[in-house]
Every structure is written in structure tokens, then in C-alpha cells.
Write a structure and sequence with these properties.
The chain is mostly helical. It contains 8 helices and no strands. Helix 5 crosses helix 8. The two termini are 29 Å apart.
Length: 209
């Protein structure tokens, strides 16, 4: 039995964790947010930056930067728990596609809400939200509101989206009271991507069945 199964979920988690450890050991934790993070203003206007990665890559590199060990640990816990189950359903390619698209959807939502924002968005929670969206659809039980399965599925998607938005608003309010800043639009954008991609990725995996 493998001590560390080589699944896409575990590999993503390992790369993310290793990136944070190396950054911390090198003493670049403070700079990492501006070098790797997604800054909406960089998309909106030409902003001079020092040693920052190209802006089109920052939705991905932002997933490698975290504010601290607690931030990293919580994200990896959710990723490993939900990602392993989603990978069983959608396969390696589906999980990787979901994560990558989720990262860009999260950045897009964050930019749409604050295109002139200069605060870097860091962390993998936007991409992980996409995995959570797919997880919710894959393992949740949709209620039979109508006799049409397709209509029931879209009602379920809408319900999950509304519930997620309400949860994110509540978490933002609680975090704000404690002095923390959450990338709420990114979480919502990522989750929406997961809801929308789950079915197409599932059909693609079993297209020859």
C-alpha cells in the first residue's frame, strides 16, 4: 500500500504546501503576495511591478501563496478531503481541469467586483471552491421538485449556489469583525465554476461508456 498515493489531488496539495514552505524558509513570505498574488489593478491598468510574474499567470501562482500556516493548512485539508472524492468521480483530468478553471474563475470574479483593487489575492481557496462545487453536486441528493430530471438538476444547482453565497456573506461578516479580509467574490466565482463544470466533465470522462 502506498504511503502517499500519487493522485492529482495529493500532488496539487504537495506542490502547494512545498511552495509555502520554501517561500517561508527563504524569508520571502511578505513579498510572495505581491510577486505571486493576483492583483485586479494589474489587469485593469499597466502597473509597474518589481519581479512579479506575468499577470495572466497570477490566478495560478496565487494558489501557491498563503498568509500563514493556518491559512495553508485549512485550504489543504479541504482540498484533500473533497478533491479525493471528486477525483474518483471525474478522474485525474477532470480534477485538474476543475482546479485550473476554478483558479481563473475565482480571479475573474474578484476582478469583476473590484477592478481597481490593489490588494493581492492569495491562497488556493478560489480553486478549491470549484472542487467543493463539484463535490456538492456529485454527492448531494437532489430533490424531485418536478418530473423533469434536467429541471431538478438546475434547481439543485441554483439552491447550492444561493446557499454558498449566503455562507460566504456570513463568513465575510464574521471575519471582518475579527479584522480578517476574505476574497468572497473569488470563493463564489470558483464555486460557480465547479457547479457548471461538474456535469460536462462527468460526461466527458464516460463519453465512451
Amino acid at each position: 500500500m502506498e504511503r502517499f498515493p500519487r493522485t492529482a489531488t495529493n500532488i496539487i496539495a504537495a506542490i502547494t504546501g512545498l511552495a509555502w514552505v520554501l517561500t517561508a524558509l527563504a524569508g520571502y513570505s511578505a513579498q510572495a503576495a505581491y510577486v505571486l498574488g493576483f492583483i485586479p489593478l494589474r489587469v485593469t491598468a499597466a502597473v509597474p511591478t518589481l519581479n512579479a510574474v506575468p499577470v495572466f499567470l497570477t490566478p495560478l501562482t496565487a494558489t501557491l501563496a498563503h498568509a500563514g500556516l493556518v491559512h495553508l493548512g485549512f485550504n489543504l485539508l479541504i482540498l484533500v478531503w473533497c478533491g479525493a472524492q471528486v477525483e474518483r468521480v471525474l478522474g485525474v483530468g477532470g480534477l485538474v481541469a476543475l482546479y485550473l478553471v476554478g483558479a481563473y474563475a475565482a480571479a475573474g470574479a474578484q476582478w469583476a467586483m473590484d477592478p481597481h483593487g490593489a490588494t493581492p489575492m492569495i491562497g488556493a481557496s478560489g480553486a478549491i471552491s470549484a472542487v467543493m462545487g463539484a463535490f456538492a453536486l456529485s454527492f448531494g441528493r437532489a430533490k424531485a421538485f418536478t418530473s423533469n430530471l434536467r429541471v431538478n438538476r438546475w434547481i439543485n444547482v441554483l439552491w447550492l449556489m444561493v446557499a454558498w453565497v449566503v455562507l460566504q456573506v456570513m463568513m465575510t461578516w464574521l471575519a471582518g469583525g475579527e479584522g480578517y479580509l476574505l476574497a468572497t467574490p473569488a470563493h463564489i466565482g470558483g464555486f460557480a465554476a465547479g457547479l457548471l463544470l461538474q456535469r460536462p466533465l462527468l460526461l466527458w470522462r464516460y463519453r465512451k461508456a
